[in-house]
Amino acid sequence: MDEILQEIIKIIKETQDVALLHDLLFSYHSNDIARCFEYLDDEDLEKIYQTFDEQELAEIFTYLDDVKEYIEDLNKEDVADLIELMDSDDAVEILEELDEEDRNEILELMDEEVVDDIELLTSYDEDVIASYMTNNYIVVKKNFTIKQAMKTVVEEASTNDNFTIIYVVNDDETLYGTIELKDLIKARAQDSLEDIIKKSYPSIIDLTNVQDALILVKDYEIDSIPIVNEKNVLLGVVTTNDLLEVIDDELSDDYAKLAGLTSEEELEESTFKSVKKRIPWLCALLVLGLIISLVMRIFESAIVAVPAIVFFQSMILGMGGNVGTQSLAVTIRAISDEDISKKEINRLVLKEIRIAFFNGLLIGLISFVVVSLYLSITKTVIDPSIGFNIFDIFKTSGVVSLSLLISMMISGLIGTLIPIILQKCKIDPAVASGPFITSINDIMAIVVYYGITLIVFAYLI
To answer: What is the pTM assigned to this prediction?
Structure first.
């Protein structure tokens, strides 16, 4: 528990006067107050509920991790009032944590306009940008005067804190442009609102894919971006905080895919749901594992004749997997840019092959020396019929080093080509996850390693 948390808890427990308590807690961020909830008893929580007004409580509740636990302590009317004061995206997140029966009861008690905003958000799939938008913004009409626009900002600032950019709409609610707050403040009452409206401000269509939307906004240093439908009607905005949430969700999703999962796995999920997410990839990897075993069966004669060669199998497979994963990461990052040309993709493939070749050459030379020294020091017998033989030692080292070179080149090529092919097939390249790439590379490395062994030690087979 950090010092700020300890300070807040001490203040709450030692201060009985709610007016004084409000003054003492006013300087702390709502998130820090929310973090204290799990350390407070029912009496302390009741004190908190009496200390803050509904708007302040609504802000605190948006930061609670397990909001359901605390909402149960309040009556439905109070809960409905709190959720009404929240941004629509925060309201959706909290309502989704509640049981369906409780959720429906609370929705019935809420303002119809707020419910409409919530239903609009929940109508979008999670992979489109509109599912992240909020109603926390200020809008003015195109025909307003400077004085009317400023009055609107002052009136709504208490409930909408995202007002550095003010949105301007036509009478039919279509987006006309935007006004920066600083420009409105500097404008004179007799000036025309039209003169400070920016009509070419970027916007995003509501059904735009999340990843595509992130690409669109990455070059704009703005606090929020409007979301419109195909008729250019302003539906909401996505703020910087929303974008951070989008990025976090995308990273979590990609991390899950790199672990061989179909989507991010939550701690709160049931065992059955987690098993359902993992089993498809595990089955696919099982098939690939069986293929590896079958391939090794083909080279059984080489393993029997040169058993010492098995000692270095894990090194061959491991290096191939590492190179493949590196190429995969570089390629996914490169092709995520929609502006990348076919020529640049070809250059990327050739570059990854060159990198894999020179890395393989260097690693191969190092392994030749190390393996030779190891087999020599341990007096390892390669051919029992003639006993210890330095020539066989060098041949074994040569097999290992050459296999490393070839398998690393192939792994680099596979790690580069698979995500490119998947993207061409309209499949998320991230599904070419670490386990998948590694299994494919293992099969190729086995073929290369024992294939070279068969060729070099043909006289023993």
So the answer is: 0.55
